[in-house]
Design the sequence.
């Protein structure tokens, strides 16, 4: 979840080894996408972070929704289980980011906040 152009799909493209975003109009996702990430893929991608971490899930189902304002009902419906809220570190708390955060709070949904575009901030 997050505001338009925070890099949600680009992060998934990196994990999947795809380039889905390039095929979308202006690089903005116009549809819902779903990706299942197997446990072994999670272990592979995170092994440098914490090798002794115990992973007690079969995998992660990631639902990629557009951050565009017109998709607010979609974000609301899809936020009931858990979520990753993506925040563009260069732009901070934009309207749809705040909207998404409020939806998660109202629904008492467990979530994490991921800061994206950190490389732009550092350079």
Sequence:
């Amino acid at each position: 979840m997050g505001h338009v152009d925070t890099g949600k799909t680009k992060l998934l493209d990196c994990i999947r080894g795809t380039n889905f975003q390039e095929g979308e109009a202006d690089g903005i996702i116009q549809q819902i996408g779903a990706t299942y990430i197997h446990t072994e893929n999670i272990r592979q991608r995170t092994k440098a972070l914490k090798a002794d971490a115990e992973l007690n899930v079969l995998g992660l189902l990631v639902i990629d929704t557009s951050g565009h304002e017109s998709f607010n009902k979609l974000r609301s419906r899809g936020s009931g289980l858990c979520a990753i809220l993506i925040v563009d570190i260069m732009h901070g708390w934009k309207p749809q980011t705040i909207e998404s955060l409020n939806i998660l709070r109202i629904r008492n949904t467990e979530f994490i906040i991921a800061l994206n575009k950190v490389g732009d901030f550092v350079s």
User: Anything to note?
Assistant: The chain has a mean pLDDT of 75. The first strand starts at residue 33 and ends at 38. Helices lie at 8-16, 39-46, 72-77, 95-106, 118-122.
